[in-house]
Design goal:
Layout: E1 6-10, H1 18-21, E2 31-35, E3 40-43, E4 58-67, E5 72-75, E6 81-84, E7 89-92, E8 100-101, E9 116-119, E10 126-132, E11 136-142, E12 150-154, E13 163-170, H2 176-184, E14 192-199, E15 202-208, E16 217-220, E17 232-237, E18 243-247, E19 253-257, E20 265-268, E21 283-286, E22 292-297, E23 303-308, E24 320-321, E25 328-337, E26 343-350, E27 378-386, E28 396-400, E29 407-408, E30 433-436, E31 442-448, H3 453-456, E32 469-479, E33 487-488
Antiparallel strand pairs: 1-2, 3-28, 4-32, 5-6, 6-7, 7-8, 9-10, 10-11, 11-12, 13-14, 14-15, 15-16, 17-18, 18-19, 19-20, 21-22, 22-23, 23-24, 25-26, 26-27, 27-28, 27-29, 30-31, 31-32, 32-33
Length: 504
C-alpha cells in the first residue's frame, strides 16, 4: 500500500575473452538509475511537481465487509473506529482487523437512507443519523463505544421533505444560543450539537442544547446561497465555536455562524476556478488555532483550497491547487486538520489524461467531468498531506493509495441524471469521509465500486464496476497532524499476517 522511490542499480559488465579475441577485459562503470514511484506526487500550490523528498507515509487498508455507500467515519478516544453508511453501523476496536455491527434495532432507525455519522471529539458521543424516506430523520447516539444506544425520530422543520442530513458538534460561544443557554440556566450539554438538512426551499439548521436529543432552536437560513434546493456539505466547527456550512453553488461559498447557529453570514471565494456542473459537496476543516481550509472541485476538475485566518470573516481569493496536475477528474474531496498548517485531504481522481477530448459517454469531447467519463476511465483514491498549508508557498504530498481502481467508468454526480451502464453508476452516491483521531492519525472512509473480478481483471469495464464496498484507509505510520505526536509509530490491523502495535 506504500510506494517509495526505488533505487535500481544496474551493473553492466562487458568482458572480452582474451583467449578468443586477444583483447584485455573492459569493465564499464555502474549506472545508477533512480526510478520515481508513480504513486507519489510532491507539488506546489499550482499542482506542479517540485523537487522535494516525499513524506514517509504508510497507509493501511481495511475491508469493512458491508455496503459502504455514503460513508462517515469517526474514532473514539478508546481507539474504536466507527464506519456508518447504508444499512449498518460498523465498529472495529482492533485497528480494522475485524468489524462488527453495533446498532440497536429498537433505539435506532428501522430503515436506512442518506446516512450520516459523527463522533464528538470532546465527549466521545457517537451519532447515527438516518433519513426515513423524505419525511423525517432518526437520530440515535451512544456514549459507551456503541454497546448501547438511545434515540428517537426527529425532524426539526415543518415541511415534510428533508434531504442531505448532516450533524456535527462544537464548543459553545459566549453569544447567541450559547449565551441564551447560560442565561436560562438550562441543563446544557458540554458541546453544541448542530443538525442541518435541505428542504425544497433551502438550508435548515438547528441547534441542540441537550446533546442531540431535541433541536428546539434554529430554522431556515434566509437570504444566503441556497441554489440547487439548498444542498450542502458537512457541518464543520472550530475550537473557537465558529460553525461552517458549505452550499453547492457556482461560486465556492461558505455560510458561517459565530453564535452557535443563532445568526449566519456568507462569504465567497474561488471565482478564479469556480465549480463544475453537476456540483458536489465542498468541505471545510479547521485547525487547533481555528484557521479554516475550504476545499472543493474546481471547474477544471482539480481539487482547490482557500484559507481563512480570521474565523471565516475573510478568505483569500487566489485559489490554491491541492491535487497534482496529473490527477484529473477529481470528486468527493474531504478534509481534516490538526495543528496550524497541518491538513489532510482525500478524493477520488483519474490519471487517464489521454482520454481528455475523446468521446465521453454522451459522445461529446470529454473535459474531465466524472459524470460523463468514458467507460474505461479508471478512478483511484488519493490522500494529500500538507504540513505547511498556511505558508505562502505550501507543499502538498499526495499518494495514490489504492492498488486497483475504486471505480471504472463514470461516477453519477446528479441523482436525476444517472446512467444505466451495466447497472446504475449511482453506486458510490454522494461523498466519502476523512477524520483524524485525538493523536492526529488520519482515517479515510470510502465506497469501493471495483471489487472481485473487477479488481483482478486486466480489462475491467464500467459494467464490472457497480459495487459499493465499505472500505477504510488509515495512517499506519507517518507524520501526525498534531505536532505533539510527531512521527506516528507503526499501527497495523490485528490480522494473522500483521503484528499489532499500540497507538503511539
Amino acid at each position: 500500500m506504500q510506494g517509495k522511490a526505488l533505487a535500481l542499480v544496474f551493473l553492466m559488465v562487458t568482458m572480452s575473452l582474451s583467449g578468443c579475441f586477444g583483447k584485455e577485459d573492459v569493465i564499464e562503470e555502474p549506472e545508477i538509475i533512480i526510478e520515481e514511484d508513480v504513486r507519489i506526487f510532491v507539488t506546489d500550490k499550482m499542482g506542479e511537481s517540485v523537487d522535494q523528498v516525499p513524506l514517509d507515509m504508510i497507509f493501511q487498508f481495511s475491508d469493512v465487509g458491508e455496503t459502504g455507500k455514503e460513508p462517515s467515519i469517526g474514532v473514539t478516544s478508546s481507539g474504536c473506529i466507527f464506519f456508518i453508511a447504508m444499512e449498518k453501523v460498523m465498529r472495529s476496536c482492533d485497528y480494522g482487523g475485524s468489524w462488527e455491527e453495533t446498532q440497536d434495532p429498537v433505539q435506532c432507525s428501522p430503515t436506512t437512507s442518506d446516512p450520516y455519522g459523527w463522533v464528538d471529539p470532546i465527549t466521545d458521543r457517537i451519532f447515527n443519523v438516518q433519513m426515513i424516506g423524505l419525511e423525517t430523520s432518526w437520530i440515535c447516539w451512544s456514549d459507551d463505544d456503541g454497546d448501547s444506544w438511545l434515540g428517537n425520530p426527529h425532524d426539526s422543520g415543518t415541511t415534510p421533505i428533508n434531504d442531505h442530513i448532516k450533524l456535527a458538534s462544537g464548543p459553545w460561544t459566549s453569544a447567541g444560543y450559547g449565551a441564551l443557554g447560560q442565561i436560562t440556566g438550562s441543563t446544557i450539554y458540554e458541546t453544541a450539537v448542530y443538525y442541518c438538512y435541505n428542504k425544497l426551499v433551502g438550508i435548515f439548521c438547528f441547534t441542540s442544547f441537550d446533546g442531540g436529543a431535541t433541536f428546539e432552536a434554529g430554522g431556515q437560513i434566509i437570504g444566503l446561497a441556497t441554489t440547487n434546493g439548498g444542498l450542502h456539505g458537512a457541518i464543520s466547527t472550530a475550537p473557537d465555536g465558529t460553525v461552517y456550512v458549505t452550499p453547492r453553488v457556482e461560486t465556492p461559498s461558505v455560510i458561517v455562524s459565530k453564535d452557535n447557529g443563532f445568526t449566519w453570514f456568507e462569504r465567497t471565494m474561488g471565482e478564479d476556478v469556480g465549480t463544475p456542473y453537476p456540483r458536489k459537496n465542498s468541505e471545510i476543516s479547521t485547525d487547533t488555532a481555528s484557521n479554516a481550509y475550504h476545499v472543493w472541485t474546481g471547474s477544471d476538475e482539480g481539487v482547490y483550497m482557500s484559507r481563512s485566518t480570521d474565523s471565516g470573516e475573510t478568505w483569500e481569493q487566489d485559489s490554491i491547487r491541492i491535487s497534482p496536475k496529473g490527477v484529473i477528474s477529481t470528486v468527493f474531496p474531504q478534509t481534516d486538520a490538526g495543528d496550524p498548517g497541518r491538513i489532510a485531504v482525500t478524493y477520488l481522481g483519474s490519471e487517464n489524461v489521454e482520454f481528455l477530448n475523446e468521446s465521453d459517454i454522451d459522445g461529446n469531447p470529454w473535459d474531465g467531468n466524472a459524470h460523463y467519463a468514458p467507460n474505461n476511465t479508471t478512478y483511484h483514491l488519493y490522500i494529500t498531506y500538507s504540513l505547511n498549508a498556511l505558508d505562502e508557498n505550501p507543499i502538498f504530498h499526495t499518494q495514490r493509495v489504492t492498488d486497483d481502481p475504486v471505480q471504472v467508468g463514470s461516477i453519477c454526480l446528479n441523482s436525476g441524471d444517472c446512467r444505466d451502464i451495466g447497472g446504475s453508476n449511482r453506486n458510490l452516491l454522494d461523498f466519502n469521509d476523512l477524520h483524524i483521531d485525538r493523536e492526529g492519525r488520519v482515517y479515510v472512509a470510502f465506497a469501493d465500486g471495483c471489487t472481485g473480478d473487477c479488481a483482478t481483471g486486466n480489462n475491467s469495464s464500467a459494467e464490472d464496476s457497480r459495487d459499493g464496498r465499505g472500505s477504510v484507509y488509515y495512517l499506519a505510520s507517518g507524520p501526525s497532524l498534531l505536532e505533539a505526536f510527531d512521527q506516528m509509530s507503526p499501527l497495523l490491523a490485528i490480522t494473522n499476517d500483521a503484528e499489532s502495535y499500540d497507538i503511539c
